[in-house]
Structures are given as structure tokens and as C-alpha cells.
């Protein structure tokens, strides 16, 4: 009854008002392309924009093709080199770096449920979230690995993967940037996680392996998104693939009249951890967004839909 009432309000009352404003009307269907999962969204983007830039961070750009290939490698590693099964939880504790979408989509291709973890969490907060969500694997930024060391034994995490800021750069630049960050700027506190693996080594292990397609329904959980914990301990909200696809289509409808495919890029204008942009990882939107017109001959970011 409540659902019918909401639909009536939308069609009879809200729709005529919204149609007065260009680009503000939301379609009655929030999944016009029939996507079953977020990996379907990525596949559609790759088929349209394979060699166009998808994400840029710290001077390194990933094309949609590279994003697909690297996420395949990560998924293949998870399937062939670990005991993780579809439905298991994997925590991702990364800031705004291009490793994040690779790990995110790779985990989803393997059928895992993503648990985004704030890089600024204290060891106590990490312990709570990891145990509450039941994560079995963790991908962590090297700068935060020292906090993981303090609580790892108190969790059920069996697989730890570490990445550094310039891991996706060329070998020389990777060595230079990572060394400056670690030894000159002293931004990576010492840690001891002897069983942890480097993300690049993990991708290399999965490179020549096939990814087994995992069946996924729209109502299956994609992400356990934890609240800020301002009224108590952080609590995990269950977001399904359908939830996030619907949100993507909502935003796509709002932006369709002001953002031109292959011509404009959306940039993050606020500093925040990636879990805040998960609701639309395809645009890297965090809190606020801005559309910047650029040269059509030098495209930066194409839309996914």
C-alpha cells in the first residue's frame, strides 16, 4: 500500500512539477538497461569506451580496458589462489587512488561483498568493523597498515594485501614516488605483517588465470556500507546491486542535460575517502561535484551509461 501511494504521488503530484525544470525529471524506470549487477555496468562501459580514460589519480590514468583487465586479474587471484567464496566479505581500506576501483570491481567479479573501511579509523574502530562484518580478506593502504597490525590477530581476516600510492605507475616512477613517500616524507609508519602480499604481486599471479563468472541477482548484497557511528558504534547498511544501480541512474538522469559524454569530466572537489563515492564510483563524486568542460579531442572521462 505504501509503495502504491508513493507511485501515485510521483505520477500525479510530483511529475508535473518536475517536468517544468529541464533535466530534473526522473524516469519511472531506474534500470532501463536491465543491469543485473555492478559488474554488468562495468562491462557495458568497457564495450563503449574501452580506450578512453576512466580514472585518474596521482598522475596515472586507467582506461576502461585497463580497469577491466586489472580487475579480472584481481578476481582471478581471489578465485584461484585463496579459499574465499562468493558471499564472503572483503574490506577495502584505501584513500582516493586508482587501485580502489580495480579492487572493488575485482572483488565483485569474484562474488565477494565489499566492506569499505575508512583509512582514518583507529585500531579499535577497525577491530569493531572487521568483526561485525565478518571480513576474511583486507586490501589496505601501506600508510595505514600499522594500525591493522595491532588488531589483526583479534579478527577473522586470513588474507591481507597491501598497496602503496604509486603502485600502478611505471617501475622507475613507482620506486621513486613510493620511496619519497616512505623515507623522505615519513608518511608510512613501520609495520610488520609477514604474511601480507603486495597488490602488484597478486595481480601478477592472477594475470594468466581465467575468471569464473559468478551468477549475481540484483537483490544480492554488493556492499556493507558502515555509518559514521555518531550515535554509537558504526553499523553496516546492506546495499544491493539494485540499490546502487538505481542510484547511478538517478544521478545520470539529473546530469544528462549538463554533462556531455566523452567531452566532460567529473572531478572530486572535496577530500574524502573512497567509501563516500561508492554510491557513484563511476563518476568519482564525493560530497560535492563539478563538471569541467575540456577539449573533445582530449577526452578524460566518459559516462558509463
Question: For the residues shown, what is the average pLDDT?
Answer: 82
Helix content: 25-40%
Placed side by side, the strands forming the largest sheet appear as 7-6-5-3-4-8-9
CATH class: Alpha Beta
> Outline, from the CA principal axes?
globular
Biggest pleated-sheet summary: 7 strands, mixed
List the uncertain runs. 269-305
Count of domain modules: 1
Strand content: 15-25%
Q: What is the structural class?
A: alpha/beta
CATH topology: Rossmann fold
Question: Could you state the order of secondary-structure elements as H and E?
Answer: HHEEHEHEHEHEHEHEEHEE
Structure description:
- The protein is of the alpha/beta class and 305 residues long.
- The chain has a single domain, classed as Rossmann fold, CATH 3.40.50.980.
- Helix content is 37%, strand content 17%.
- The chain contains nine helices and eleven strands.
- The protein has helices at residues 2-18, 38-49, 64-81, 99-109, 123-133, 145-151, 171-184, 199-206, 241-255; strands at residues 53-57, 60-63, 89-93, 113-116, 135-141, 159-163, 197-198, 221-226, 236-240, 264-268, 289-293.
- The strands form three sheets. It has a seven-stranded mixed sheet, sandwiched between helices.
- Strand 1 (53-57) and strand 2 (60-63) form a beta hairpin.
- The longest helix is centred in the first third of the chain and has 18 residues, at 64-81.
- 37% of the residues are buried.
Amino acid at each position: 500500500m505504501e509503495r502504491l501511494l508513493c507511485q501515485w504521488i510521483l505520477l500525479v503530484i510530483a511529475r508535473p512539477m518536475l517536468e517544468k525544470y529541464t533535466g530534473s525529471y526522473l524516469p519511472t524506470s531506474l534500470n532501463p538497461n536491465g543491469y543485473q549487477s555492478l559488474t554488468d555496468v562495468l562491462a557495458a562501459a568497457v564495450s563503449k569506451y574501452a580506450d578512453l580514460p576512466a580514472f585518474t589519480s596521482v598522475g596515472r590514468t586507467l582506461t576502461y580496458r585497463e580497469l577491466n583487465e586489472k580487475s579480472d586479474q584481481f578476481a582471478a587471484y581471489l578465485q584461484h589462489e585463496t579459499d574465499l567464496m562468493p558471499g564472503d566479505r572483503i574490506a577495502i581500506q584505501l584513500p582516493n587512488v586508482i587501485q580502489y576501483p580495480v579492487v572493488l570491481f575485482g572483488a565483485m567479479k569474484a562474488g565477494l561483498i565489499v566492506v569499505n573501511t575508512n583509512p582514518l579509523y583507529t585500531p579499535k574502530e577497525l577491530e569493531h568493523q572487521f568483526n561485525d562484518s565478518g571480513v576474511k580478506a583486507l586490501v589496505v593502504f601501506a600508510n595505514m597498515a600499522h594500525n591493522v597490525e595491532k588488531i589483526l590477530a583479534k579478527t577473522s581476516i586470513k588474507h591481507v594485501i597491501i598497496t602503496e600510492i604509486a603502485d600502478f605507475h611505471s617501475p622507475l616512477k613507482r620506486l621513486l614516488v613510493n620511496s619519497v613517500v616512505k623515507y623522505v616524507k615519513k608518511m608510512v609508519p613501520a609495520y610488520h605483517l609477514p604474511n601480507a602480499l603486495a597488490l602488484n604481486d597478486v595481480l601478477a599471479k592472477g594475470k594468466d588465470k581465467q575468471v569464473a563468472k559468478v551468477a549475481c541477482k540484483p537483490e544480492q548484497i554488493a556492499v556493507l556500507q558502515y555509518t559514521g557511528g555518531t550515535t554509537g558504534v558504526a553499523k553496516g547498511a546492506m546495499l544491493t546491486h539494485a540499490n546502487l544501480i538505481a542510484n547511478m541512474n538517478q544521478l545520470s538522469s539529473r546530469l544528462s542535460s549538463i554533462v556531455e559524454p566523452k567531452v566532460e569530466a567529473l572531478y572530486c572537489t572535496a577530500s574524502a575517502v573512497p567509501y563516500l563515492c561508492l554510491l557513484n564510483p563511476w563518476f568519482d563524486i564525493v560530497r560535492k561535484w563539478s563538471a569541467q568542460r575540456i577539449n573533445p579531442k582530449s577526452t578524460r572521462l566518459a559516462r558509463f551509461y
